[in-house]
Design goal:
Blueprint: H1 3-21, H2 26-39, H3 55-73, H4 75-83, H5 90-107, H6 110-128, H7 132-146, H8 155-166, H9 179-200, E1 216-222, H10 234-243, E2 247-253, E3 256-259, E4 272-278, H11 279-289, E5 292-293, H12 302-306, E6 308-310, E7 316-318, H13 324-328, E8 349-350, E9 357-358, E10 363-370, H14 381-384, H15 386-390, E11 393-398, E12 418-424, H16 425-435, E13 437-439, H17 450-468, H18 474-487, H19 496-499, H20 502-520, H21 523-536, H22 540-555, H23 560-578, H24 582-594, H25 604-608, H26 621-642
Antiparallel strand pairs: 1-4, 1-5, 1-11, 2-3, 2-4, 6-7, 8-9, 10-12, 10-13, 11-12
Helix pairs in contact: 1-2, 2-20, 3-8, 3-17, 3-18, 3-20, 4-5, 5-6, 5-7, 5-9, 6-7, 7-9, 8-23, 8-24, 9-26, 17-18, 20-23, 21-22, 21-23, 22-23, 22-24, 23-24, 24-26
Length: 645
């Protein structure tokens, strides 16, 4: 083993370890790995950022923009309304929903496809009286399978095609080369999901599905002065909470956090109770215990100075205007929005001072799931100034895993969290679009602009056809599609760059030179030799199985794009060492990298359904393990038939 080989192995091992650890975001880890390779001389400084100009990176960015055009134009709504049955039984409903997710994922970003169909899936769960997870996991797995069908279906396919194109005697894969294995695999997988798979999903159900009881929430309630529970012992409150299927976790008094307060502790006015409860029982908890939502109280002094009247559900109405200046300063700092006409019209006051916000009569509640790469990940309500800047109250958070001792307003958001937010409905919708959240509510399936819906679908179709016919490369074809979308306004020009999932683009651009270094130093060939000699014993079919299984295991714990970039050179090295068809091994890596079914962290779609489905980390393997076995059983014969060794 040479010094360069040892160095790149250390870098790769450290990179995989950081991916699995999950403390740093994937793009940060990838850039770090690239810079270390440059410092060690494994990647030439002039080639360090060549990956960002790679056709695969350009294609990924362009497909994301075209996906956004489909979302904004309402084209997906038209398709879902036409395809999905209105009153079918679970098997047919799940089959139709998973199939639609697979078809969409074949031509657009699969995370975007899942996000579009999640509200529909939750509505189907309500209609069938099933836990949301019973519908969400089949939809997520179906959309993952759909990505295996085309070149643009998922970034790993583009990575694999890029490695093939880098060989002077091979060239890139075509648009539908992946379909020969991906299409039958998706069809068989969806049949399995509809007939058997959804029955294996754990039933994480909380008091019915009406009202989107997706999971238990962590929320904070304040004991107001004169409350019925003021002066009572903790045990009296916990008894009432137990009857309501809720529990008291902690208590905050004078900014001091008390974990699991003792039963005999006396409650005082101003105490904050940290509860775990379902969204459906929060209102009853507030009523029975005479409590107030902590994040929904006006700033001290404003209610008395400005005569605020509680209208229920956290909405406050303005009575007189006397004393406003004394309470909040210059009246010119306020903006006034009428929710209705007449003297009692609701007012919305936004004030420069943090925490001062008065809801108008258009205020409402919304549940939102946090996307894996959402802008709010790693931030808290205080960091974002949700209340003072946007007029949004964070009322509760549903999260799987360990509960931290942080206050609700300082809790850092994670992918898969479900947030219960209060504010103006138009502001909530704008917040969801801008910050990467998925509203978990039945969406209006009306078409915002029918002409734009057809234009968006037509532009994508033309780009696909041009690429499939070989008239233009995928990168050029889809870049032209983006330009056409901007010119025809199917996607607002100002939002084009917001549509790109930049962490994925940076991850891909940074890892491509690292993967090239594995080949140039001979490390990929070394790893392939070790795998073949120790596990496959020189047998070509056994080598194919080893490469595919290794890829599937790795992708369950790290980003699928990163997995493809790491395993592609190893797969190529194994094929060349065995003297067999390299396409067979590259396709095996593509399939294996896409099929992450065992954990919530292996694929962004799995992470996205974690909170809304009420899942735990260990819930995925029950359906995921049979899916992995199915993928191996179906794809290996297809690989040997269409890409013979």
């Amino acid at each position: 083993m040479t010094h360069d080989q040892a160095a790149i192995l250390i870098v790769i091992a450290g990179t995989i370890g950081m991916f699995v650890w999950g403390r740093w975001r994937h793009d940060m880890v990838a850039v770090g790995a690239l810079l270390v390779c440059v410092v060690f001389g494994l990647v030439a400084p002039g080639d360090a950022f060549a990956g960002f100009g790679h056709p695969a990176v350009v294609t990924v960015a362009c497909v994301l923009v075209l996906s956004r055009a489909l979302q904004l134009s309402g084209a997906v709504d038209v398709l879902s309304r036409s395809v999905l049955p209105g009153d079918a039984k679970p098997t047919v409903s799940i089959a139709a929903l998973a199939a639609l997710g697979a078809v969409l994922s074949a031509f657009m970003n699969n995370v975007g496809a899942l996000a579009l169909l999640m509200p529909v899936a939750i509505q189907v769960a309500r209609r069938l009286d099933l836990p949301p997870g019973k519908i969400l996991m089949p939809l997520a797995f179906g959309s993952i399978l759909g990505g295996t069908m085309t070149l643009i279906g998922t970034p790993p396919n583009l990575v694999i095609s890029g490695f093939r194109a880098a060989r002077p005697d091979m060239g890139a894969f075509g648009m539908f080369d992946f379909s020969m294995v991906g299409l039958p695999l998706s069809a068989v997988g969806i049949v399995f999901i509809a007939l058997v798979g959804w029955r294996l999903v754990p039933a994480r159900k909380h008091a019915g599905t009406a009202g989107f009881e997706t999971s238990t929430y962590i929320t904070e309630l304040r004991v107001p002065a004169g409350s019925a529970v003021e002066g009572k012992q903790v045990r009296e409150v916990t008894g009432v909470l137990s009857d309501l299927d809720a529990q008291l976790l902690d208590l905050v008094r004078n900014d001091v956090y008390v974990r699991s307060p003792r039963p005999g502790k006396i409650l005082r006015a101003g105490d904050i109770l940290v509860l775990e409860a379902n969204a459906g029982v929060l209102a009853e908890v507030l009523s029975r215990l005479d409590l107030k939502l902590e994040e929904d109280k006006p700033q001290a002094g404003i209610d008395s100075a400005y005569d605020l009247r509680d209208e229920g559900a956290g909405a406050l109405r303005l009575g007189t205007d006397a004393g406003l200046k004394a309470a909040v300063g210059d009246v010119s700092d306020l903006t006034e929005n009428s929710g209705s006409s007449g003297p009692d019209a609701g007012l919305e006051l936004r004030v420069g001072k943090p925490g001062i916000f008065v809801h108008d009569t258009d205020a409402g509640l919304a549940e939102m799931a946090v996307l894996p790469e959402a802008r709010i990940v790693g931030s808290s309500a205080s960091d974002l100034l949700l209340r003072s800047r946007y007029g949004i109250n964070l009322l509760a958070v549903a999260r799987q895993g360990a509960f931290t001792v942080e206050r609700l307003r300082s809790l850092k958001f994670k992918p898969g969290d479900v947030l219960l937010l209060q504010g103006r409905l138009d502001v909530l919708n704008e917040f969801a679009n801008s910050f990467g959240c998925v509203p978990l509510a039945q969406r209006d399936l009306s078409i915002p602009d029918k002409r734009k819906a057809f234009l968006a679908a037509g532009i994508l179709a033309v780009s696909v056809v041009v690429t499939a016919l070989g008239l233009l490369s995928a990168a050029v074809s889809f870049a032209a599609g983006v330009l056409a979308s901007m010119a025809l306004r199917t996607v607002p020009v100002r939002t084009v760059y917001e549509a790109v999932d930049w962490p994925v683009v940076v991850l891909l651009g940074a890892l491509l030179p690292v993967a090239d270094a594995m080949q140039s130093t001979g490390t990929a060939d070394l790893l392939a030799r070790l795998l073949l000699e120790n596990l496959a014993q020189g047998n070509a079919f056994a080598g194919l199985v080893v490469v595919m299984v290794s890829t599937m295991m790795l992708t369950d714990f790290m980003n699928n794009t990163a997995t493809a970039a790491v395993m592609a050179p190893i797969g190529l090295g194994a094929a060349f060492r065995l003297g067999v068809n390299p396409d067979t091994f590259l396709m095996a890596v593509a399939i294996g990298a896409s099929c992450a079914f065992l954990t919530p962290i292996g694929h962004q779609n799995n992470t996205l359904i974690l909170g809304p489905g009420g899942f735990r980390f260990g819930d995925y393997w029950r359906m995921g393990l049979p899916m992995d076995i199915l993928v191996l059983t179906v794809s290996l014969p297809l690989l040997l038939f269409f890409w013979p060794l």
